[in-house]
Amino acid sequence: MPPVLAQDNPYSSENIQDHTESNLSLTEIFERSEFGVVSITVTKTSNLGNSNSAGSGFVFDKEGHIITNNHVVKDTEKIDVTFIDGTSYRAKIIGTDPYADIAVIKIDVNSEKLHPLAIADSSNLKVGEQITAIGNPFGLSGSMTSGIVSQLGRLLPTGVGFSIPDVIQTDTAINPGNSGGPLLNMKGEVIGINTAIYSNDGSFSGVGFSIPSNVVLKIIPALIKNGEFQHPWVGISSANITPDLAEILNLEDAKGVLIMTVIKDSPANKAGLRGSSETATANEIEYTVGGDVILSIDGKEVRKIDDILTHLQREKNVGDTLNLEVLRDGKIIDIILTLEGRPKS
């Protein structure tokens, strides 16, 4: 089922080409997006009894699929979706991906009620670009905030053993209840899913994070079809090359990724990659060394582990191969690795 892309959004009464050629005002963006953004209320059961929490989401298609965060709907007993006009519908979970913190839920409703939001190519984003968010912070439905893209390519921990790469950082105000709602460019197109904030007290402190829309376009079709998405997996733990490690390894520059351990029966293990098994000291600090150093992946320079994770997310799927340029025992060699799906936790 194809997503609603910016160029073929059928739910506007005006010419779409005109919309995509020029920026809109914040008021125009809100008016054209408000009926596609929803409030999500969930009921969770624990040993302490039932509890309610809230998040946001947005309409993906005319079939009733709605996108939100996995952490919004995880372990829920009941999910209710409310539109800005106050009408509510019971929803069911269609698919979840804890590794990207994305979930698809579905409501049964007349298609005339559904106004899917256009989804843009997040790879076109630039630092400093103005953006806006619509959601339900603290239960205040249909709230809009605005800001800029503060940085791109951030690495966001998920709490399930893997991090989400290539994440958008924004100073757009995002608070509890915004999770799962859309981050929009100034053409009113979705360029991210608001997911997390950096905060000491749980409220907005100027740093928010959004999952880029290109991840949505890659993962959502699999969630709708199969209920899950298989992320490609290498099977290593690693460390970025620091100046100390560069000195120990006789490298000219502090760049590349040192393999620390190789997981048994993983793609890395099957390809013959080597982990570290020796120790060396630099500046009175002991380091574990001796493993392969990854210098490039599919011809692209690797400066740190983020480069590998971003490449896997953007370009690769389970079953694809990787061409790794590796430094081993002072010599550069090429290793071909076939990606497998991440093992279920």
Give the termini distance in whole angstroms.
29 Å
Query: What is the 3D form?
Result: elongated
Which H/E pattern describes the elements? HHEEEHEEEEEEEEEHEEHEHEEEEHEEE
Query: Which CATH top level class of the largest domain fits?
Result: Mainly Beta
According to CATH, the fold-level topology of the largest domain is Thrombin, subunit H
State the strand order across the main sheet: 1-2-3-6-5-4
Count of individual domains = 2
Mean pLDDT: 90
Structural class: alpha+beta
What is the helix fraction of residues, given as a range? 10-25%
Number of strands: 22
Number of helices: 7
User: What percent strand?
Assistant: 35-45%
Commentary on this structure:
The protein is α+β, with helices and mostly antiparallel strands and 345 residues long. The protein folds into two domains: 1-229, Thrombin, subunit H (Beta Barrel); 232-341, PDZ domain (Pdz3 Domain), CATH 2.30.42.10. The protein is 16% helix and 41% strand. It has seven helices and 22 strands. The protein has helices spanning 16-21, 26-33, 70-73, 213-226, 243-248, 267-271, 305-315; strands spanning 37-46, 49-59, 65-68, 76-82, 88-97, 102-107, 130-135, 143-157, 163-170, 182-184, 190-197, 208-212, 232-233, 236-240, 257-262, 278-282, 285-289, 293-297, 300-301, 321-328, 331-338, 340-341. The strands form five sheets. A six-stranded antiparallel beta barrel has the order 1-2-3-6-5-4. A hairpin with a 4-residue loop joins strand 5 (88-97) and strand 6 (102-107). The longest helix is centred in the middle third of the chain and has 14 residues, at 213-226. The relative contact order is 0.12.
